[in-house]
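Input record, target 12 of the design panel.
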């Protein structure tokens, strides 16, 4: 499981995908999220602006990213 570190209270789901290198840009992030390919803590979430907090796990394309503080 990969980890990304955030300084703020939360980060948006689309930004997590970009930071982790799982999406090249916001357009790609939006597309895979809206297609139901991204899970947050094991559940599909279709909102690109979903707030992701420290401790949350984002899954996409066989990879998991844990957000840490």
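The sequence produced for target 12 reads:
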């Amino acid at each position: 499981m990969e980890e990304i570190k955030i300084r703020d209270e939360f980060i948006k789901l689309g930004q997590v995908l970009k930071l982790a290198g799982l999406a090249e840009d916001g357009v790609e992030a939006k597309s895979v999220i809206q297609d139901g390919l991204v899970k947050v803590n094991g559940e599909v979430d279709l909102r690109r602006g979903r707030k992701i907090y420290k401790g949350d796990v984002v899954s996409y394309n066989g990879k998991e990213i844990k957000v840490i503080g």
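The chain has two helices and seven strands.
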